Structure formats: C-alpha cells, structure tokens
Amino acid sequence: MSYELIFLINTFSSFFMAGLIWTVQLVHYPSFHFVGTDNFSAFQHHHVHSIDKIVIPVMVAEITSSFGLAWIDGWFSLNAVGFYIVVLIWAATGLFSVPAHSELEKSKDDSAIKKLVSTNWVRTILWTVKSGINTWILWNLIK
User: Fold this and answer.
1) Are 84 and 133 a contacting pair, CB within 8 Å?
2) Which residues cross the membrane (predicted)?
3) What is the mean pLDDT of the chain?
4) Is pLDDT above 90 for 1?
5) What interhelical angle do 37-73 and 98-106 show, nearest 10?
6) How far apart are alpha carbons 134 and 37 in whole angstroms?
7) Which end of the chain is more exposed for a tag (fewer CB within 10 A), N or C?
8) Which DSSP symbol is given to 32?
C-alpha cells in the first residue's frame, strides 16, 4: 500500500472522528440528561450498539494507518506524534468512556452522565489536535 493511500485513510478517519466527537461532545452526550429514567437503559443500549457500528471501523482504520505512517516516517516524526495521540485516545476510551457507558447501561445516573461529558473532553481535544497534525502535514505535502 502506498504512503499516499495510508495518509489519505488516516486523514479521512481523523477528520471524521474529530467531527463526530465534537457532535457527540456538544449535542449527543449532554442530551442524555433529557432522556427519561424509564427509557434510559434502552436508549443507552441503543446508543452504544449503534455508535459502535460507526466508530469501531473508523477507529481501527485510524490506529492502523497511524501505526503505518509512524513505521514509514520513523518513531520521532510528526506522523509518529499522531500515532501516539491515537494511542492516548484509545486509552481514554478504555479508561473513561467504556466504564461510564457500562455504568449508564445499569440505570440513568446524572453524575455518571456529567463524568462522561467531562472526561470526553480528553478525546475531543486529542482528536482535534490529531486532525490539526494531519492538516499541517497535508498542507506541506501539497505546497
């Protein structure tokens, strides 16, 4: 696979996830507060199983292509920094988002929702920075 194709996959996946995470952060997660207690478990189950179909393939494409770019460019390159950021995103997902969603599958808990929103800023900022890195690299490639 060519460097250009790997970079294209990586850039698309980073931009896609940055856009999605900003929507989730500002619109979707805060809306959890407005779902009734009676419907919340079904809503949470639907959210997790529906969003997984979107984010898992894109996140896998992003981490795989990020690794490939770091491998090609070297572990001290700007693409390597992008890979390290993606690793941090995966860590934040596993440490913060997955446990919060697991807690919310049991029942509606406003403090768990607040924690989900506040800890999701880590991923939101990291994906924004990752997209910025890809923008910088892309700009320098086309100059």
Assistant:
1) no
2) 6-24, 78-98
3) 97
4) no
5) 170
6) 41
7) C
8) G
Domain count, the chain: 1
What would you report as the CA-atom Rg of the chain, rounded to the nearest whole angstrom?
Answer: 17
User: What are 133-139's contacts with CB under 8 Å, separation 24+?
Assistant: 133/78, 133/79, 133/81, 133/82, 133/85, 134/10, 134/11, 134/14, 134/15, 134/82, 136/78, 137/7, 137/78, 137/79, 138/7, 138/11
What pTM, to 2 d.p., does this model score? 0.96
DSSP codes, 70-134: HHHH-TTSHHHHHHHHHHHHHHHIIIIIHHHHHHHHHS--HHHHHHHHHHHHHHHHHHHHHHHHH
Can you give the pLDDT at residue 143? 82
Q: Are 117 and 33 in contact (CB under 8 A)?
A: no
Rounded Cα gap, residues 125 and 128, in angstroms: 5
Determine contact, residues 118/109, Cβ cutoff 8 Å: no
**Angle, in degrees to the nearest 10, between helices 3-23 and 78-92:** 40
